Amino acid sequence: MSNMQIELPKDAFSRVNTSSKESELITRPGITFWADARRRLMKNKVAMLGLAIIIIITMLAIFAPVFSEYTYTKQDLANTNAPPSREHPFGTDSHGRDLWVRVWVGARVSLAVGIFGSIIPGLIGIVIGGISGYFGGKVDMIIMRFIDIVMCVPNMIYIILITIYIGTGPAALVVAFALTGWMGTARSVRGMILQLKEQEFVLASRTLGASPANLIFQHLIPNTLGIVVVSMTMGVPSAIFQEAFLSFIGLGIQPPVPSWGQLANLGISVFRIYPSQLLIPAALISITMLSFNLFGDGLRDALDPKLRM
Amino acid sequence: MAKYIFKRLIISIITIWLLATVSFFLLRALPGNPFQTEKLLTVEMQERMMAYYGLDRPLLEQYFTYMKNLLNGNMGYSLKYTNRTVNSIIASTFPISADLGLRSLAVALPIGLALGVASARKRGKAIDYICVVVAVIGVSIPSFIMGSFLQYAFAIKLKILPVSQWETTAHTVLPTVALALSLMATLTRVMRASMLEVVMQDYIKTARAKGLSEGRIVWSHQIRNALIPVLTMLGPMVTSVLMGTFVIERIFAIPGLGQHFVNSITGLDYTMTMGLTIFYGTFMVFANFLVDIAYGIVDPRIRITK
Fold this sequence. Notes:
The complex is a heterodimer of chains A (309) and B (306).
Chain A: H1 20-23, H2 33-43, H3 45-63, H4 99-135, H5 137-150, H6 155-166, H7 170-196, H8 200-207, H9 212-248, H10 260-269, H11 276-303
Chain B: H1 2-28, H2 43-52, H3 59-71, H4 86-121, H5 126-140, H6 143-157, H7 169-199, H8 202-209, H9 214-242, H10 246-251, H11 258-266, H12 270-298
């Protein structure tokens, strides 16, 4: 310990002119939760890269077939299994169909099934999970036991059953995904609603006379939206995968309409001789799933307040 | 504990009964009959086949017959594999699928969890980025693509491993790796996220403050607590892996259970689909039950017996 004492003269300090009113003043504009999340998402380079790739693939899916002289069914039997060239950027298949057009028409199908096959079950899950969590008691028990039972069987069995019943095709697949895919979301939404409904703002709203529907849709569900949006984004790659898988085993999209899974399935039969016919759809499936996963990861980080530091 | 197990057992039996009932009537609601797909059979012959298997009786009578047989553990004859019972088909193909599944899990579980832990502990460092990238690529490449490429690279080009079939240990390598990669990637992601959550908890600071060694902190405080979400996932994961995966089995020509899941439904093989559904469901219920018990062991705060 030193005995040295620092001399601090009184006139070295001066009073900062503050009043209690000014210190309470908000100097910066308030930022909403979503604006904050967007800002953090924009800073995440990997997520933005994922988003950029998704946009490029979507644009190509929309416009590439329009600006090509070929159609996805037009056969040219004199020019089958051609390697990639200036005329056919991805080559041709065993019927001489232009693979560039087929791949991008397939992208329309795969992306549409992937996106709607994730959003629609997500929405159903929100509604059912919301009802189950809010009302609790018997309703909750019946819905949860139902989910428990249905989840005991692999999804694939239901999807195949439904496609046998209502036929195959992009719309049928989306219906099948919608009927089988809502349970995970319903469970997690229910869990969150159970926590949220005990909080004060719900009590306040109820005291002010809000109806159950109003409470569920105005107060409870918006608070669960962050996690649901993330799970929907993460659901897109798995829906794309399921479509690819079903088409790959011949149960999904039926020829001549192409999808990525089906193109991969056709490609695998000639894989050893013409590897590019499998490589291209396989690479596109993987890149798209990767981009959605990267974007979903970024979105989760942006929406999770616990990760703020 | 005994009371809890008893209660769970009752709930499980009710679950499986409901499952069997729902799938029974759902399957019968499908258009067509099992013998329609074989084009050689005339309508008259189809009807005789239906009568032979008792499928022309009233639906409720069939249901009660099926349930009675099911109680005796008899799931009937397959409608597609002549003279083979569903039990014998499951008994001969399940061990193969389970073998492949166990091998993949034995590879994926330790590596996946280790990568997850390493990644979370070195958050933001090079090793974290490598693990995250490997994991996200692993979950983004569908198994049928991974399987085809492994087969092409190692069996066709390099010729160091057999292309397909299920005979020697060398035959098991490629399918095991193809299956294990995606499992590993999923486990790494879940374990990393869970570890990151745990590392920030106050009790980790307490553990450090009271002077525990880093090894103790990691093993008995962080990993143990981080395992809970992994356990939740493990029930369905182990079930689906042991029950066989259609694509891997098809690519590598493995005579496992996975193919029957798809083939029996598309062929409207009622008894086979029913048998597989019930088998899968029972397995899943049992796996989830074990997971619930494991919760209590990993985290004593979770008391399953209230």
